[in-house]
């Protein structure tokens, strides 16, 4: 017997097929847009255009009885794919007369990403690895830019080897700490120097909306083409000092990574049943557990270097440990009122950001919930 829902399901399938066809058409148009942007040197991410388009689509959706959040979710996911596909068309070369670029450590994951993006932008890129230093002189003697992309623990000693660069060569690094590498580059090279920190990992599909912090060392006008090139890739360039950067990274990276490490280590010590934790978790707890588990799916030496690279990191972690101990003491005393007062004090300190984070997390949690798939027993 035919199921009573079969006719309606068939109609839904037909509409879904139309959606697939429309998305294919949209991606084809995006490919054409990418070619125009590449030709004219336009950034792949245009925030004003994106905001205006989303606002208009939300209004149109509301007028037709479609939840505005639904159309925004669909379009944002589609745009993410669009930004990634625009990489395939390449990018305009901001400085076509630049001599060769040498990426030291270009065989590493993040180094490979920059090698690829620079190549897509029309530059001649050479890769120099630790086993290739017999070729270093020939590669570096005429370099227009040298990008240091080696692990943190060997960054300064690698930079120390670069004393014979051409005076107009741009010397840059992409290390997650900035004070020591910047000082080392300024000491070894007389020409333009800039410290970069990509605030993302090597697995991103596109540079669109990604943040790259940069710290001026010397000769900003001479490396301005590099800033413009990364903006064309879609990145948001954030200028800062090395000291301010490293102080922020103590909280953004070192403390967060350490607390994830400690939480994961504690789960192991009590032999927690991860499968059961996942089954019983709401989306927010599942996401929190996922962020902890994500840490342990990556290179341990990388995170050891990040956490241990700056003495200030240890001081901040010790301060956190003391704050945690104070909170535990409050619980041991059973002082509910003290807990509430402390909670409200922190809430006041966050101010409007608490509401912003609530809204952002709501969207993330809904996506996490939608992605869950249950199998029948």
TrEMBL record:
One GO BP: chorismate metabolic process
Domain Chorismate mutase: 1-90
Keyword hit for Oxidoreductase: yes
Stored InterPro entries: 6-PGluconate_DH-like_C_sf (IPR008927), Chor_mut/prephenate_DH_T (IPR008244), Chorismate_II_sf (IPR036263), CM_dom_sf (IPR036979), CM_II_prokaryot (IPR002701), CM_T (IPR011277), NAD(P)-bd_dom_sf (IPR036291), PDH_C (IPR046825)
Domain Prephenate/arogenate dehydrogenase stretches: 99-361
SMART domains reported for this sequence: CM_2
Presence of keyword Oxidoreductase: yes
GO MF assignments: chorismate mutase activity; NAD+ binding; prephenate dehydrogenase (NAD+) activity; prephenate dehydrogenase (NADP+) activity
Pathway the protein contributes to: Amino-acid biosynthesis; L-tyrosine biosynthesis; (4-hydroxyphenyl)pyruvate from prephenate (NAD(+) route): step 1/1; Metabolic intermediate biosynthesis; prephenate biosynthesis; prephenate from chorismate: step 1/1
Main localization of the protein described in the UniProt heading: cytoplasm
UniProt keyword list: Amino-acid biosynthesis, Aromatic amino acid biosynthesis, Cytoplasm, Isomerase, NAD, Oxidoreductase, Tyrosine biosynthesis
Compartments where located: Cytoplasm
Gene Ontology, cellular component aspect: cytoplasm
Superkingdom, taxonomy of origin: Bacteria
A Pfam cross-reference name: PDH_C
Entry-linked NCBIfam families: CM_T (TIGR01799), PRK11199.1 (NF008400)
Protein name: T-protein
Organism the protein comes from: Motilimonas pumila
High-level lineage: Bacteria, Pseudomonadati, Pseudomonadota, Gammaproteobacteria, Alteromonadales
């Amino acid at each position: 017997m035919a199921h009573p829902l079969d006719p309606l399901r068939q109609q839904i399938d037909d509409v879904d097929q139309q959606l697939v066809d429309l998305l294919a058409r949209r991606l084809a148009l995006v490919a054409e847009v990418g070619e125009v942007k590449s030709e004219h040197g336009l950034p792949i991410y245009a925030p004003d255009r994106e905001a205006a388009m989303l606002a208009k689509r939300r209004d149109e959706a509301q007028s037709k009885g479609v939840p505005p959040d639904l159309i925004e979710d669909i379009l944002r996911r589609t745009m993410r794919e669009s930004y990634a596909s625009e990489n395939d068309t390449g990018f305009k070369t901001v400085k076509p007369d630049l001599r060769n670029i040498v990426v030291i450590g270009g065989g590493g994951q993040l180094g490979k990403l920059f090698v690829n993006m620079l190549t897509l932008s029309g530059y001649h890129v050479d890769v120099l690895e630790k086993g290739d230093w017999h070729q270093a002189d020939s590669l570096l003697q005429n370099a227009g830019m040298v990008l240091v992309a080696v692990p943190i623990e060997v960054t300064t000693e690698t930079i120390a080897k670069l004393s014979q660069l051409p005076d107009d060569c741009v010397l840059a690094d992409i290390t997650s700490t900035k004070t020591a590498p910047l000082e080392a580059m300024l000491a070894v090279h007389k020409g333009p120097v800039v410290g970069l920190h990509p605030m993302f990992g090597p697995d991103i599909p596109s540079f669109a909306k990604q943040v790259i912090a940069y710290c001026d060392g010397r000769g900003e006008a001479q490396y301005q083409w590099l800033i413009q090139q990364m903006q064309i890739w879609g990145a948001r360039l954030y200028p800062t000092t090395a000291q301010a950067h490293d102080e922020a990274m103590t909280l953004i990276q070192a403390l967060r990574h350490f607390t994830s490490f400690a939480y994961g280590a504690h789960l192991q010590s009590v032999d927690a049943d991860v499968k059961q934790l996942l089954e019983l978790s709401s989306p927010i707890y599942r996401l929190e557990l996922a962020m902890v588990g994500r840490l342990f799916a990556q290179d341990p030496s990388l995170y050891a270097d990040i956490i241990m690279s700056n003495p200030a990191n240890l001081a901040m972690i010790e301060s956190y440990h003391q704050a945690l101990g104070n909170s535990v003491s409050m619980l041991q005393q059973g002082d509910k009122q003290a807990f509430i007062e402390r909670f409200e004090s922190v809430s006041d300190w966050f101010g409007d950001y608490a509401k912003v984070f609530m809204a952002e997390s709501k969207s993330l949690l809904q996506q996490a919930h939608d992605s869950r798939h249950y199998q029948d027993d």
